[in-house]
Amino acid sequence: CRNPPVFTNAQAAVTSENGFYPHGTTLNYNCLIGYVGRLRYMCDDGSWKNTNRRFDCQLKPCGSPGDILHATFQLIRGDDLVFGARIEYICDEGYKMVGTKNYRDCEADGWSGLVPYCEVQTCSSVKEPEHVTIIASATFDLDQDFPFGSALQFECSSSELEIEGVKEIYCLANGTWSNPVPNCKELVCSKPTIPHGQLLSDKEVFKYSEQLKYKCKRNYRPENIQHTACNKFGWIPQPTCTPIVCHVPRIEHSQLLTSKWMYSPVSSIWMDPKSKLCRKQVCTTKRRY
């Protein structure tokens, strides 16, 4: 036989100097670096034949590259965890890779490099603004960094102040806070608009607990009292003017001829069917005839 088979993953252990191989000659092949197994061919009546088809040189497996906490890995080169493959580690949300490389290669002697690790992302420490109280979701020192997922709530130190900004911020996966740290400002109420009413003050802005006095126009009365106070929910009670109405009274042996339910100088006229005498009743501001 001449010209023994040539393989990309194996090499014959011994070759003939003159290139001729007598009948019955057996050639053993050594797998190349990165491959495992064996090959054997025999010269049989002028041609090379595989003595055992189960023999082969296959890519050397590397096994598991190693799991790490708060991360997963994926195959980015090759189809299996064998020689020549490359895997890449990806940290979970809120974690960052520590190490010079986030990948490992399957080499002839195993996986390259060291297993990296992922550490939690942190947000910078927070300074407590003036008149602001910070409530943390866990026990933390405000001078230290806060881990991903931490929440801070803010309250003003006085009921006369209100939060300027958001009342709660979170440490995000990228290591930044969801919103700036808020401040506390003086709590004020704007001058309200009262349908059918009139303010008894020319002020545009009122401070916390300051009272507002108003009056209602003719035919209307205050829903509650004629003064209201500014607090963190606005004006309490809400200044409102409602129409003055009277419930129609019952008068024996009379029938109602005309009626105006709203406050008016003459609200209803009644007539006695027998005497034909009429009686008029006035709806007063006290909502009675």
TrEMBL record:
Top-level taxon of the source organism: Eukaryota
Domain spans labelled Sushi: 1-59, 60-120, 121-186, 187-243
Keyword Repeat applies: yes
Signal peptide span: none
InterPro entries hit by this protein: Compl-Cell_Adhes-Reg, Sushi/SCR/CCP_sf, Sushi_SCR_CCP_dom
Disulfide bond sites: C91-C118
Keywords for this protein: Disulfide bond, Glycoprotein, Repeat, Sushi
Claim: Transcription is one of the keywords in the record: no
Protein name: Sushi domain-containing protein
Species for this entry: Scyliorhinus torazame
